[in-house]
Design a protein that fits this description.
alpha+beta, 2 domains, 6 strands, 57% helix
Length: 185
């Protein structure tokens, strides 16, 4: 065992202070590290600016897209309204014809055909979003109605629509044609 102890005896090292090779280099690299840190901070600031700019551009693009979609929807409504306005006089004429239908069995089938055509026409208008503006019995609204006459009527409150002379129509919030009405005084 004594041999074993001799072998495991720690080796003594000189007590001189050892300097690592990095210590001397560290003082030399310090300005280099500071320059890299400054460069990193500048790049991070530039990245932040680019990111904020990109986010602003993205928001502007989304707003632009929404505005274009809204403008296209409004343009579509205007074009549809202009086309439909041309057919409203045909609808009015058909309503007048149906209201003055002559009595008699010989022309009944012909009038049924006219009524069918009228229903198809009104169905097409409804499918395009056209709505009749309600008026009779309502309070007069200059945004929806156009007064043809003002009449004295003791049975009806002043400012109320007495009768509809010509129907008015709208698509959504857009008035295609105001309702022509007679109003009580």
């Amino acid at each position: 065992m004594t041999e074993h102890k001799k072998r495991t005896k720690p080796v003594e090292t000189p007590t001189e202070e050892m300097t690592t090779p990095d210590e001397g280099v560290e003082t030399q690299e310090l300005p280099e590290v500071a320059a890299l840190k400054e460069e990193l901070a500048a790049v991070q600031e530039q990245c932040k600016e680019f990111s904020e700019g990109w986010q602003r551009e993205r928001a502007d693009f989304l707003n632009f897209r929404k505005r274009i979609e809204r403008d296209q929807a409004q343009l579509n409504q205007v074009v549809t309204g202009n086309i439909i306005r041309k057919y409203l006089s045909v609808t009015d004429d058909m309503e007048r014809a149906l209201a003055n239908r002559p009595k008699g069995a010989e022309s009944q089938e012909w009038w049924n055909g006219v009524e069918l055509i009228y229903r198809k026409l009104t169905g097409i208008l409804e499918s395009e979003g056209v709505q009749v503006i309600p008026a009779e019995g309502e309070m007069f609204d200059p945004a929806l109605h156009e007064a043809i006459t003002h009449e004295d009527d003791t049975d009806v409150e002043s400012g109320r629509v007495i009768a509809v002379v010509q129907k008015g129509y709208r698509i959504g919030d857009r008035i295609i044609r105001p309702t022509l009405v007679r109003v009580a005084r």
